[in-house]
Amino acid sequence: MLQLEWAAFMGVTETDGDAARSQAGAPMADHQPGGIAGYYGAPHGAGREAALTALGSALAHRGGAEERHERGRIGLAVRAGAPGASFTGRDGTVVVAAGIDPAAVADRYAAGGVELLATLPTPWTAALLDPAREALVLVAAGAPLYYAPAAAGVDGLAFASEPAALVEAGLVSSAPDTERVVEFVLTGGGEDGEATFFAGIRRLPVGQALVVDSSGAVARSIDAVTPPVDGLAAARRALAGSQRPAVRLGLGLPGAALAATAKNTPDLPASAFFSSSFAPMDTTEDLYSGAVGAALGVTVHSVRVNADTLAADLPEFLRVQGEPVADLGEYVQYAVAKTAKEGGADALLDPVGAIAAYGLTVEATGKKARREVAPTTLLATGSASTTPDGTPSPAASGAARLAEARRSADRSAARLGIRIHTPFANPVADAGQGGASLRAALPSGAPGDVRNSAPVRDWLLRLKNRIYGTFLAESFVNRPWFHQQNVLVAFEDFIKGRNHDADLFWRIWCVEIWAQEFLDPKPEEKEPVRIKGPLEANANKQLEITVDGERWLRFPIRTDLFTSGDDYTRRITSYVAEFVNHVRADGTYLSAFNGPWYLLVSEKIIAISQGRSYFIWDIEPSWWARTLAKFVVKTPYGIGLGSPWTMELAIREAGLPRILFAAGISAAGKAVGKRGLFYQVAGHSVRAIDGPTEYSVYPANVSAKLAPAHPDRVSAKLKATIVASLTDAGLPQLAQTLAGVVVIDANDIGRNVLGSDADRPEEFFENLFGDNPLGQGSEQTPLAVAVRVG
After folding, report:
1. For 408, how many CA atoms within 13 A lie in the half-sphere containing its CB?
2. What sequence ranges are listed for the domain Asparagine synthetase (predicted)?
3. Is-contact 412 334, C-beta < 8 A?
4. Residue whose C-alpha is closest to residue 396's, from 385, 411, 409
5. Sign of torsion, CA 338 343 348 349?
């Protein structure tokens, strides 16, 4: 009977609880996988009740029905789609369970203790309150369960179906497990053991129970011999247990076989088939799913899943997962499941895991990489994960990959409110036979090649600006895991096609976004940023300043972004004319323009328009640039020659001999207490070179730029053009009082006039911009009109 019972239930994944409970005679649950949580702690105090409440709230997405049980030192909570996820046996044992009938767990436990629980069909999790022993028993039977050995406010431990729930409930800090993070970056996973991405949270290994009582916690094995799964048979059972199922075509052959199997399901609507569309960058998935749909005679709905949707969804997706994910296919699954749910489906059959389970081979595409990145070189000193003999940790095993696929499907399903069945995310009966059973299921004319889950390389190249900005961010620099400079250099090589390590860079980016979501303090909710009016100062800046006893107003002018090749003279003249109209309409400051007024122009927009701004990945730093940049004092503003890219531009602008001479003079000057000699020798054009800054708007956050060419000529041409424009507009008085145009490099550190056609000395304008009224963040105000008011 035992073998028959296993045969009846094996192949149902951790998100297949509906089918399992239906066959076991248990009531059907809602479309959300249930979840359990609780604690073992002190017998008294409001902290226990608060902990249970917080845990239940953190798992609210796993079902609207909540049941709680508290007795002595133990508290249990369960969330499910419908009541009935807890049970109290005749001996008083209380069971909360997800993925199985809790009464069956209570019966087996009463009959033979923990060991007899191995005879129950997986996957499921349960927590048992044993009153006779005053013990808590946690069981992970094919599904994940997490616990915190030293939970805050609980003199014992707390547990939950998801690690993020323990953090969200405030029972565990979000401190990372650095070794686990590094292992993930190096290998893409690791064995499905106890370590998690959170230092204070452990995973209860699958096939184990944890018995907790007054003497401590003891692990007990409940392993059972589980026969391999017939993946397609498991798919048929899942289809039979769903009222409105949907099927995802994906991974080529596995998805096509799944769709062909589903096609034979009675009463399955022809509209139940979905596939991901990676267009416009990659249309091969659309062509493949179209060919499969034509062979089956069904309509396949395309779900837009591409680099742009990934960028928009990634923070939310990682909040759902609670930890980084190695396979971008799990995001594809999430996006398709979300669309299927919105279309009314209550379950989604997904082919995830099939490539690992069946040992399928995906043919490599694209040109061969010229070299590979050694992942350990991208890690901070001392953070590399190695085996005892000093070699890098091996890549994640197939079993670990399948476990991650099941976990990801479970969490996505819980958040989206749709069952996600993954019948291939298990060891399969014909593993190693090249997917023979899958190929046999295909109808005539259906293609049977194997495909990647997502075009990772294409997506990362499409998002290179965003990713590069992430790698430049202060938060990334301060992580204990990465060597930022090496990561940037390697990513530049990836962008330029020198390496094809897309999966590695995906993992690095994924870890950083996860860290931002879970580890970094969240800023307080702020009111939406208000765009300043035309006659207002920028935020935290002042209109007025006193220079040499004279009161002056500086009006920042907001513009759209400038790009290479722009006719900056025409555009700037247009912005000035618009500003003049605002002054005339308002009237408050009009009389001040009877006296001299000036236009000050940020050198950035001139340099950008002239094509003298470069994306970081388009600059090839020389050995000299990388070496000299190491000796430059870094500023908190990201400005100067402290990066290889800006140093390379300095060498190109002034020549290597001059830069080396300036460096030598600077070093000698510092020895005797004199500073600032470097730029005196290198020149103003070198001083004006800027590097990428995290706080700037795109593309400044991923660019380095030279000073504008011929800034004096630029100033003179702008002045002449503005005077002519105002005269033609019937405003000769304003044209006559325009006393000059200045091109200036200003920031919070210093000011430097680069070009001028004005009647006052450069020092005056540098003092006029002493408080940097234009700002350097997202203000988008590269122009300012200055007028004297007293």
Report:
1. 27
2. 257-350
3. yes
4. 385
5. negative
Around 276, how many Cα atoms within 13 Å sit in the side-chain half-sphere? 30
CA dihedral 609, 610, 611, 612 (to 10 degrees): -110
Residue with more model confidence, 17 or 362:
362
β-sheet bridge partners, residue 220? 209
Instruction: Identify the CATH class of 231-518.
Output: alpha beta
Count Cβ atoms below 10 Å from residue 304 Cβ, excluding itself: 13
Q: What pLDDT does residue 193 have?
A: 79
Q: Which tokens hold the place of 289? A: 């799913």
- The single residue listed with the structure tokens 């267009």 is 279
Per the CATH hierarchy, to which homologous superfamily does domain 2-221 belong? Answer: Aminohydrolase, N-terminal nucleophile (Ntn) domain (3.60.20.10)
- Between strands 419-421 and 347-349, the pairing is parallel
Place of tokens 């969240």: 522
Rg of the chain in Å (alpha carbons): 32
Q: Strand, helix or coil at 510?
A: helix
Residues 544-610+709-788, CATH architecture? 2-Layer Sandwich (3.30)
CB of 182 closer than 8 Å to CB of 158: no
Tell me the two tokens of residue 73.
């030192």
pLDDT band at 45 (very low <50, low <70, confident <90, very high): low
| pLDDT at 575 > cutoff 70 | yes
First CA to last CA across the chain, in angstroms?
99
For 644-678, b where at least 16 C-beta lie within 10 A, e where not — what string? bbbbbbbbebbeeebbeebbebbeebeeeeeeebb
Question: Residue 16: pLDDT above 70?
Answer: no
In whole angstroms, give the CA distance from residue 385 to residue 481.
11
Task: Look at strands 157-160 and 35-40 and give their pairing.
Answer: antiparallel
16-30, 56-70, 118-132, 381-395, range with the lowest pLDDT: 16-30
The SS3 of residue 314 is helix
The DSSP code for 745 is E
Beta strands 216-221; 550-557: pairing state? unpaired
The model's pTM = 0.77
Omega of the bond leading into 123 within 30 degrees of 0 (cis) = yes
Q: How far apart are CA 672 and CA 725, in angstroms?
A: 53
pLDDT (0 to 100) of residue 190: 59
The tokens of 230 are what?
């017939």
What SS3 class is residue 703? Answer: strand
Q: What is the pLDDT of residues 627-666, one digit of tens each?
A: 888 877 655 444 578 788 889 999 998 999 999 998 888 8
Q: Give the residue, 306 or 48, on which the prediction is more confident.
A: 306
Give me the residue spans of the domains in the chain: 2-221, 231-518, 544-610+709-788, 614-705
- Which DSSP letter does residue 85 get? S
- For 772, the 3-state DSSP assignment is coil
325 contacts 511 by C-beta, under 8 angstroms: no
Strands of the 783-788 sheet, one edge to the other: 544-547, 550-557, 783-788, 597-602, 738-746, 751-758
